[in-house]
Amino acid sequence: MKRSILAVVTAAIAFSGAAKAEDVITATHVFPAGLIYTKSFLEYVDKVNEAGEGVVRIDVRGGPEAIGMFEQPAAVRDGIVDMVYTPGSFYGGTVAEKDALVASNITGPEARENGGIDLLNEIHQEKMGVYYLGWMDSGIKFHLYMTEEPQLDAEGNLDISGEKLRGNPIFNAFFTDYLKGQVLNIASTELYTALQRGTISATGWTSIGLMDLSWDEYLPYRVDPGFFSTDLGVIVNLESWNALSDESKKILQDVAIEHEKSSMEKLVQLAKDEFAELDKRGQKVITLEGEAGENYVNAARETTWNRMREQMEAQGTMDNYEPLMEHFNK
Q1: Max Cα-Cα span within the chain
Q2: Residues 167-210: pLDDT tens digits?
Q3: 220 within 8 A of 283, measured Cβ to Cβ
Q4: Which of 16, 170, 220, 327 falls 20 to 30 Å from 73 in CA-CA distance?
Q5: CATH topology of domain 20-139+231-263
Q6: Beta strands per DSSP E along 164-295
Q7: pTM of the entire structure?
């Protein structure tokens, strides 16, 4: 009888422990910890860990020092890590449709509301085996920053002939196809040294974060207007996602939806604050006026849509081209 009671108690304890097991998600982030975008992701992590206490926890394993920034998308696809915060452009060869975010003129919350994020999630699951959890930190544009004062032609168009631009999968098509620039692919972690040595004379970067990286020391000129949209998002290995409890999934997704909105609002205000500080530090803004400015912005979007269409045609996945255009354009 005592043995029987002991067996029942032991089984009950084991069942209770299993029922209360906490789901743990391992994660990495694309940029170093000190950058504002990484801080935004870590804020999302903190929100999840607070809301999901005892249910689900995100265990951050580091950034590019743990897994190289360009290797992180493959790492989450292959299950080496469960979650990655990264630009979609870093896995554009697999999911060409990520360019819809780059060329978009709407924000994450708007794309969430109109079904655009759900469509991207379906595409990510099918083509990459990952769950697209959210488009974070949207509403922020890119700008061209230069070491020397940019030259304009007689019509007020930007003339960058002879300039060496830091390349990146996000804006290479725009820089080469429209601006006809000489592009050198350099990781963001290596750009400070490249600027210091004079290897690069111009780079694209977002409206925020320039001072975090101390690039403003070598980039006293900014070209306006801004172009593109940031395409930072959180992707989760699909097998890891499917293995989570329904409660864990709901917490991760609900917090992601809330963070899409709060991160956008926070960073848009931060961009205004940073521009004011850069102005105090003496950064000079060169604005392309009238038709020249319109052509500049439109060319950025058109070259990106063209790149997406060409890649989708090559991948035989054109069915979603028009729906993406509809969802990510006002």
Answers
A1: 98
A2: 887 788 888 888 888 899 888 889 999 999 999 999 999 999 99
A3: yes
A4: 327
A5: D-Maltodextrin-Binding Protein; domain 2 (3.40.190)
A6: 164-167, 182-185, 202-206, 221-227, 232-237, 284-287
A7: 0.86
